[in-house]
């Protein structure tokens, strides 16, 4: 998909096309969305073990997968270890580039979503009838049935500072 019109934002548009080319050149692209931002302050971010379990599950089903990690926290992704190599697609300006990230995620063949309707929609819009989508079993406010029935649910918990809580 083309990037949305954004005035004289030539540099960001070129970056979008570079990232899109990387994804489209990959036969088995998988996006991983990690939501931090406001979730960190209120204790709603998923524990990293959820993403690791999801990556492990996906690796067994998608041969030669290539991971593309989307997150709004550059510092977090610089130290991220998912147990599998990945391309960091983290944007520096989350507000301006959020819609571009949505388009990039939906350009992947498969997805690992956060407890976020943002990545839920990106996964839902993937145009691949064989797509595998993995989501967290636990969501905020008890929304346990938010995932599509064919999507895979992985056990998850929320992290609050150094403590872990089941949703």
The dominant shape is globular
In percent terms, what proportion of residues is strand?
15-25%
Strands of the widest sheet, in order across it, are 4-3-1-5-6-7
Q: Quickly count the helices.
A: 6
SSE arrangement, N to C: HEHEHEHEHEHEEEE
CATH architecture: 3-Layer(aba) Sandwich
Number of strands: 9
In CATH, the topology is named: Rossmann fold
| Broad structural category | alpha/beta
Helical amount: 25-40%
Low-confidence stretches: 162-167
CATH class category: Alpha Beta
Q: What is the alpha-carbon Rg in Å?
A: 15 Å
Write down the overall mean pLDDT. Answer: 80
Q: Biggest sheet, open or closed, and with what strands and sense?
A: 6 strands, parallel
Terminal CA distance: 35 Å
Pfam family, one: Glyco_transf_11
InterPro entries: Glyco_trans_11 (IPR002516)
Organism: Helicobacter pylori HP260AFii
Protein name: Glycosyltransferase, family 11
Question: What keyword list fits this structure?
Answer:
disordered C terminus, 167 residues, glycosyltransferase activity, globular, 37% helix, 9 strands, Rossmann fold, 6-stranded parallel sheet
Describe the structure.
The chain is α/β, with parallel strands linked by helices. The protein has a single domain, classed as Rossmann fold, CATH 3.40.50. 37% of the residues lie in helices and 20% in strands. The strands form 2 sheets. A 6-stranded parallel sheet has the order 4-3-1-5-6-7, sandwiched between helices. Strand 8 (158-160) and strand 9 (163-165) form a beta hairpin. The protein starts with 9 loop residues before the first helix and ends with a strand. Residues 162-167 have low confidence and may be disordered. One of its GO terms (molecular function) is glycosyltransferase activity. Keywords: Glycosyltransferase, Transferase. InterPro entries: Glyco_trans_11.
């Amino acid at each position: 998909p083309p990037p949305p019109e954004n005035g004289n934002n030539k540099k960001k548009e070129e970056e979008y096309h570079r990232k899109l080319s990387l994804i489209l050149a990959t036969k088995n692209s998988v996006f991983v969305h990690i939501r931090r931002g406001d979730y960190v302050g209120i204790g709603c971010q998923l524990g990293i073990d959820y993403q690791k379990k999801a990556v492990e599950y996906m690796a067994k089903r998608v041969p030669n997968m290539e991971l593309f990690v989307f997150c709004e926290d550059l510092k977090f992704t610089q130290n991220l270890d998912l147990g599998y190599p990945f391309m960091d697609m983290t944007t520096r300006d989350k507000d301006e580039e959020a819609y571009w990230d949505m388009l990039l995620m939906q350009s992947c063949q498969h997805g690992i979503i956060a407890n976020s309707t943002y990545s839920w929609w990106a996964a839902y819009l993937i145009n691949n009838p064989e797509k595998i989508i993995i989501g967290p079993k636990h969501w905020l406010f008890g929304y346990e049935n938010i995932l599509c029935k064919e999507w895979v649910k992985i056990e998850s918990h929320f992290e609050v500072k150094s403590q872990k809580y089941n949703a």
